[in-house]
Amino acid sequence: MFLNCHTYHSLRYGTISVEELVQQASEHRLKTLALTDINTVTGIYTFYKLCLENNIKPIVGVEIRVKNELYYICLAKNAKGIAEVNKMLTAYNCEGIEIPKENPSLINTWIIYPMHNIPEKLSDHEFIGIRENELNLLIQPKLKSLIPKMVILHPVTFKQDDKNENYELHQLLRAIDYNSLITRLDKKDYCRDNEYFINKKKLLDKYRDYPEIIANTAWVVERCSFDFDTRTTKNKKHYTKSKEEDFLLLKKLAYEGLNRRYPDDDGRARARIDKELAVVNHLNFCAYFLITWDIVQYSNSIGFMHVGRGSGANSIVSYCIGITDICPLELDLYFERFLNLNRKTPPDFDLDWSWKNRDIILQYIFDKYGKDHVAFCGTNVEFRGRSRFRELGKAFGLPKEELDNLTTKPREEHDKNTVVKKIHSFETMLENFPNQRSMHSCGILISEEPITNYSALEMPPKGFPIVQFDMNVAENIGLEKFDILSQRGLGTIKDTVKLIEEKRGITIDIQDTTISKNEARCNQYLSIGKTIGCFYIESPAMRGLLRRLKCDNYKVLVAASSIIRPGVAQSGMMREYIFRHNHPDQFDYFHEVFKKELGETYGIMVYQEDVIKIALHFGGISAENGDFLRRAMSGKGRSLDLLQKLKNDFFDSCQKKGHPEQLTKEVYRQIESFAGYSFCKAHSASYAVESYQSLYLKAYYPIEFMVSAINNGGGFYRTEVYIHEAKMSGATIHLPCVNLSESYTTLYDKNVYLGLMHIEKMEIFLKHLIPEERKNNGEYTSLEDFFKRIPIGIEALQTLIFVGAFRFTGRQKHELLIEARFLLGKNHHRNKTKSLFDEPQKDYQLPVIHKNAFEDAFDEIEILGFPVSHSIFDLLKTKYRGHVMVKDLLDYHKKEVKMLAYLISRKHVPIESGSMYFGTWIDAEGQYFDTAHFPDSLTRFPFREGGIYLLLGIVEVDYHFPTVTITKMAKMPLIADPRYTMDEDKSQEVAKSLREDVSLTFRKPYPQEHQIGLPRNKMTGRY
């Protein structure tokens, strides 16, 4: 009898989760229940599953509202009904087609109108919902005649409670939705105060005088049905016309790739292909492979570069057909980690493109497979902690100052007044509430049937439609996503190759991975951590790891790419791997199988594939069951009963192989310890290939590489660091110039001209228009010429003057500023077109002003964020540059050093005794080093934003990598800004604006060596 229930997926309206809704219905012993969220089907599949588990008949539908006006409630008669509603909502959301206020063409749907929207004519499938407090209206002749078309309408929106807090939460959500004070809401803006579950008998008793209405309601309920098969795959079934044709095409492509990838195959590659093809075909995943191949083929045809990574790189078929570039034979990658007969879910390919190219690939997918069959996964964006406080505070009418206190101060420091206490209470209630739907970052769905059979679509600002549920729901109902990702690293690589060809005439096939896997210079750069700008290996932590390992080859880089992952490092594998790598003679392999199968990683299960290896070669269970065991230990939706069965099978198999029980227990303990933390080797290998590609370009073409990194938005660090790297590589850095700069940074021989894009306070259209106008009509000959051709205001023009963009005129900044003011005053209404009758500006002689040598540097910091004409060290008050430079640190192990350094970045890391920071700095010679700051030091000598610091600390050399543990530090003052000699406060502003990169991590502290428990001695004898 409850035909109109809302959950919190009725955004900023409902206050009940789907789970709570079904639980309440179960507590009221209901046998049927309808979910009708407002304009969305987000929750219907979770609702369907939970209802069946609770022996409740699920009825699904949607409450249709337009601009918060209730039109009608739709209940699906069957699966076709929900598809009809989805299609209508999609047309409204994506194409702006109005939703009819009455008599919609929904023949497989029951329509229930509210009393205020009764149409002139009711179709057979249309009814009127009447609330209990509206029954007294039935004395009216017109309404009385409509009783045969009436059903019970008792909406459910919130959970009843003694203090009425849930109802007030609903009102607050409505205020948030309207961006209004809760006190200013009108009654029509929120629901009635009785919209909660009541006893079914009590509800029916209210309608006892109208048995026909009760009967109508029961009749509608009986004729609603929503049976949904979650076991079958909903993805596009065939790439060609049939499963058989798909298999033949995939086999043909794989064999063609075999000849290309393995021209001297000894039979191993072909056997592996045949084995994989049999599994892929058996599991009906040929179409998934072929669709992925098709997307990659299109990308290749237009000259785009991609990276295929994830567990898909474990497949030799994906390698041969060009989806990935990782040879699974070379790295001993197990196909079973990717796909096996125990794994019924589709394979998982992660495909990366440059951030500049991804939208073109997406458009191809939508065009090729049809907008009716393609959509992004959605995602629910919840009310975040700070936003909960801010939104609730606004609804209660708090002033800005109090709102700022709520959102910036810890909870315990908030005021204790009555309003704030209420806000605290409701803030807790709002946890996990969705606030809006958004687009999944990469998940694309390609369905066999129209995708509106499963969901209405919405159109976020990005411009590609999304379904109304997230990736987890999609997977649960049989819609598997294709991951189409973007990253800046690929853009940097592609742009570097293009720039090298343009400037040097050298063509590089960077996708030929053989050119960058064993280059002496690349290996040298790796071993000393000279990798800033390179994909995945430029962070301070990664550069430190590379130095600790003296990494000088591809396979060690693959391992490093895995053990740097937080979970892997947290398990203790990173510390143990570093020890064994540097001391190969100070440990024994735990067992001969570990030496044979894990010799490359010194007997440590670094990768997920290693877990499978040990399960197979030590335990004697199949590779498929080995992966099943790994997934069960990782908590991938497996039951404890299944895990116990797999454990029993492992121990039984080990016993049959003659392993002592104590030995088996220790091996199982190690598998159990590492299975949840280990990283996919194929994923690491894919990362390592791209890292090497970028490193190759950095090693041999460093200036071109850094210019491209700058133009692609850099990576881990801010732009200033990449400009510094270019300078350290031999480039001469020039400020933006209206005659030589583009919107992006450009290169002329070794001269790097910063792009107009780096001038933060200038409008984007000007950054593109200035070089475009110059290209079309020639260089600017003067400030006046520029002013006549570019529609620019005085603030932007002054910014260009201050940053030196008109230095080609040879005139001082103060002259140009006076001229700019004169030009603007003379031309309030000016037409930006060339005229035959333009008269030149009269040339006035102004006095030469002798300015301070550092004025320009302060202009640059203010406009760009960093100085170009001078080093930041030149601006110090002191001439002191430190007693020790970075190049000498290795000689100061356990010794105290005093250094002067510029802060690049710092990372917050929790430890058992509180919080610490790792800092990254450059010295006056431009070399990088790292520091550690523990709680006792930070308490007395905290960071004070960006700038140059005097550091005192003890050098600790850990496996070739020096870190300075700071005992004292102080921020060093810059000279007073010479532009404001008469204003002391203003003269310090720029110094306070110096930037730093701050990152946070909330991982648990890494374990100490004694906590890892990984034996370094061989276990012998029988136990």
Number of helices: 39
As a percent range, the share of helical residues equals: 40-55%
Strands in their spatial order, largest beta sheet: 1-2-3-4-5-6
Shape: globular
Strand content is 5-15%
By DSSP, the count of extended strands is 22
Specify the biggest β-sheet: 6 strands, mixed
Low-pLDDT residue intervals, each spanning 5 or more residues: none
SS class: alpha/beta
> Can you give the mean pLDDT?
90
GO biological process, one term: DNA replication
Catalytic activity: DNA(n) + a 2'-deoxyribonucleoside 5'-triphosphate = DNA(n+1) + diphosphate
Keywords: DNA replication, DNA-directed DNA polymerase, Nucleotidyltransferase, Transferase
GO molecular function: 3'-5' exonuclease activity; DNA-directed DNA polymerase activity
SSE layout:
Layout: H1 18-27, E1 32-38, H2 44-53, E2 57-66, E3 69-76, H3 79-95, E4 109-113, E5 126-130, H4 141-144, E6 150-152, H5 165-178, H6 200-206, H7 211-222, H8 243-261, H9 268-282, H10 286-301, E7 306-309, H11 316-320, H12 335-338, E8 350-354, H13 358-369, E9 374-382, H14 385-395, H15 400-408, H16 418-429, E10 434-446, E11 457-458, E12 466-467, H17 471-476, E13 481-487, H18 488-504, H19 520-527, H20 540-549, H21 554-563, H22 566-570, H23 573-582, H24 592-598, H25 608-617, H26 623-633, H27 640-656, H28 661-675, H29 681-700, H30 702-711, H31 719-728, E14 732-734, E15 746-748, E16 751-753, H32 764-777, H33 783-789, H34 794-802, H35 813-826, H36 855-864, E17 896-911, E18 914-922, E19 928-933, H37 935-940, E20 948-958, E21 961-971, H38 989-992, E22 997-1000, H39 1009-1012
Parallel strand pairs: 1-2, 4-5, 5-6, 8-13, 14-16, 17-22, 19-21
Antiparallel strand pairs: 2-3, 3-4, 7-8, 9-10, 10-13, 11-12, 15-16, 17-18, 17-20, 18-19, 20-21
InterPro entries: DNA_pol3_alpha_NTPase_dom, DNA_pol3_finger, DnaE2/DnaE/PolC, DNAPol_HHH, PHP_dom, Pol/His_phosphatase_N, Pol/histidinol_Pase-like
Enzyme class: transferase
Pfam families: DNA_pol3_alpha, DNA_pol3_finger, HHH_6, PHP
